[in-house]
Design a protein that fits this description.
It contains two helices and eight strands; from the N terminus they run H-E-E-H-E-E-E-E-E-E. It has 160 residues and is α+β, with helices and mostly antiparallel strands.
């Protein structure tokens, strides 16, 4: 009888442990992205971030009647880059990057988000997967004074 009670306790602990492991496994881990900075000029530096294929799968950019994609509109709706004072940094979409080689971008990129940030200032880079939902991911960084080679970071979910 003791063995049966011990087995039941062990089974219950195993179930609780398995539930905990699975709940940790299924938490939102964030969005991996490659970033780089370079081309310093007049106290600013270029900021480049990869737009991976998965980022556009939730909401594709609109198309014109002639079949052109409205990428800059999509970038304005799905990315937000602000400095420490809350001032928004204008971003634009480009098909290539002078700072991040395509073969190092991680898969086939849709393109790149590019903006000019003030050197040595703290910034918040937000990715918003869906326009009408409150979910967003944030990466906080201090911009480089010069070139910063490409690095992969995980943009973490913002908790409220």
């Amino acid at each position: 009888m003791r063995g049966l009670i011990g087995l039941a306790i062990f089974g219950a602990l195993a179930c609780v442990g398995m539930w905990w492991v699975m709940s940790e496994f299924y938490k939102d881990q964030g969005v991996p992205v490659a970033l780089a900075m370079g081309n310093p000029k007049d106290g600013t530096v270029e900021f480049h971030a990869v737009v991976a294929m998965g980022m556009t799968s939730t909401e594709r950019p609109r198309m014109t009647l002639k079949g052109g994609w409205l990428w800059d509109e999509w970038v304005d709706e799905h990315f937000d880059l602000r400095d420490a004072s809350g001032e928004r940094v204008p971003l634009r979409f480009r098909i290539s990057s002078g700072l991040i080689p395509d073969h190092k971008a991680g898969g086939t990129p849709e393109g790149y988000v590019i903006g000019r940030v003030k050197s040595g200032v703290k910034h918040d880079f937000d990715y918003i997967p869906r326009r009408n939902e409150s979910q967003r991911y944030r990466y906080t960084f201090t911009s480089a004074d010069g070139d910063m080679p490409m690095k992969r970071v995980t943009i973490k979910p913002v908790t409220k």
